Amino acid sequence: MRNSVRIAVVGDAGVGKTSIVSSFAGGSFADKVESVLPPVELPAETSPDNVAIKIIDTPSGEDNALEVKNQIKEADAIVLVYSVDNDETLANVTQLWLPVINKLAPDTPILLVGNKVDMRSSSSTAQSTLRELITPILEEYKKVEICIECSARQMLNISEVFYFAHKAILHPVHPLMNVEDNELTPHCKAALKRIFMTCDKDKDGLLNDSELNAYQKYCYGNPLSEKELEGVKAILADNLGKDKGLSGERASITLDGFFFLSQHFVERGRPETIWMSLRKYGYDDSICLSDSAVSMDSLSGSGVRLALTQNGASFVKGVFARADQDRDGVLSTPELKELLSTCPHLPTRWTEELSFPLGLQHTSTELITADGLLSAMAELLSAAPIEGMKYLLYFGYDGKMEEAVTRVDSAYTAFSSGLPVVPARAVVLASRDDFKVVHKLAAALTCEGKWEKDDSIRHGVGLVSSKVGDTTASFALSLEVEMFDKAVQDPSLYQSGDIVMIPVACDNPMNVTVFKARTMNFMRGDVPPMFAVISKQKGEPDLVEQVVKFVKEKGIPHVLMSDANTREALAEAAALSVQKRQKKVEAPAGESKKSEFPTMMVVGIGAAVVAVGVAAFFALGGSSGSGSSGSSKGIGAMRK
How far apart are the first and last CA of the chain? Predict the structure, then answer.
């Protein structure tokens, strides 16, 4: 939560901007004031939220337009003043000021203030009701939080102007509620549902008196009295009926009832009550979990990878099981929607890179499996640890984060720690014509069909099992496709992988020559372990033999891959990412490391899978390859 706020007061000349600021700062009206006051600063201890306030008076006139625009851009809230005795100033609110503010500061809350109510004339349109005048403005400009009339001369509602401005910054209404349709926003509902589920300790879908009181005490510091509890339930019964807002013999509160109570506060001008609850559970101003909700010194830092512990893996499996209502082992569209109903959005890696939900499928029905969800969460924690921990919380995890995840440096350290799911990154360095081979690998790992239709997909993840020594391990194998030419220039694209693949087709001598050049090029650099996967399709036998002989000479493990054993080949690659690292750790001092970091080669035999060209070959041969208010009592403050 912020520790200071900046409020800019703007409007036409003569509407009384400076008089409003002067009356507020001085506590009385002054007949003569400066044309523009210097900034008014209030220390944090004067605010109920312990937040310092700076009020900026702005000048009028075209000569000062640039300064006013800069103040609008810098403000946390804008007080837009018009004069109720001058219809032209109200017209300028919609014709001039609001369009400018919407362009310069589209996310900044606005308070519309009608000054000089003491000078209102009977002929002025301001004599109409405030609602009639303002409703069209509220409907068009969603960031107008509130409209209020005041009089600087009579000191009427002057303190309220800045109270509501301060409130609009710290406790804005629009993230919570869509005013036009009178409904809680999807983000707000998702957050409140997660809070409800977290408080529902017995997992019966209801909040009993004990659970409700625990929520009340955690968020607001004090439990509900018996009278307050009865009052809350009476409101639900009167507005929703006993069957919708309350349930069971003990009249426990339903999720719909919890939503209603939250909306009830917002509608009655108490959004700070909901914001106190949201912030207590780690949400920021956009109603997404903040980094501080999950950041821990032992689990954060540059280059950190996280993996699920046994406790964390069991939790993810439990999340899937609860969502799989028909117990068929896959999630239908309604079940998937329910699973994600506590998330404000999906992780970027699941949408832009995995094309969620298709990227997590491995069934003929194209539905999410438990393995798909488990592997996606394991990969997310490995690639984006902070975001991964947030999604554990979104899915309802409420234990100690250190018990759900642990820090790992590589697939080898995850395996050697005995973790239930070993996240392993396989980087495929490909040219555009390599995608037929890449598709076979990706389709076997994730979803049949999707990869074949879209060459732009560069990422997939799936769960594979493989024996490493005497141990059978489950790998969340992440297949990351990078363009080979870029990787030559930027080794960081592959150096973070646990294993590297370089596809090549054996349908003509040029491809084999380029394949050998790539291999030699990368063996000179510091690259992760390698593994050759030779696709067993139509091709020239002599070229196949050349490839096999070459990889054997270089000490690169290989497998002949067919459509039937593609997943087995991927599993073997995952296992080798651990075994090669294991051999490096166990190797005696001074032993040659030349073959400890061989590259995984995906060798496609058949139709023209790679067409690198002579120019690209010479380029490769010359590269080194490295290069709120504290007075709130929470739901106990509910009134009918």
Answer: 31
Q: Which two tokens stand for residue 561?
A: 């891959």
Q: Report d(CA 397, CA 395) in Å as an integer.
A: 6
CA atoms within 13 A on the CB side of 556: 32
pTM for this model (two decimals): 0.81
pLDDT at 545: 86
Number of Cβ atoms within 10 Å of the Cβ of 300 = 15
For 529-574, the pLDDT digits (tens) are 777 777 656 557 888 888 889 988 988 877 777 767 778 888 888 8
- Going through 17-76 in order, the beta strands assigned E by DSSP cover 40-42, 52-57
Strand pairing class (252-253; 246-247): antiparallel
Within 8 A by CB and 6+ apart from 86, the residues are 12, 14, 15, 124
Q: How far is CA 470 from CA 310, 466, 575, in A?
A: 20, 10, 12
Report d(CA 593, CA 528) in Å as an integer.
12
Identify which of 489, 503, 525, 515 has the alpha carbon closest to the alpha carbon of residue 617. 515
What letter does residue 173 receive in the DSSP assignment?
A: S
Six token digits for residue 299: 């689990």
Asked if 554 contacts 479 with a C-beta cutoff of 8 angstroms, the reply is no
Annotate 540-599 with DSSP letters as a single string.
Answer: -HHHHHHHHHHHHHTT--EEEE-GGGHHHHHHHHHHHHHHHHHHHHHSPTT---TTTSPP
Structure tokens at 395: 């899915």
Give the phi and the psi of residue 143 in degrees, each rounded to 5.
Answer: -85, 0
Of 608, 615, 594, 612, the residue nearest 524 (C-alpha):
594
Q: What percent of the chain has pLDDT over 70?
A: 80
CA nearest 263: which of 286, 236, 283, 290?
236
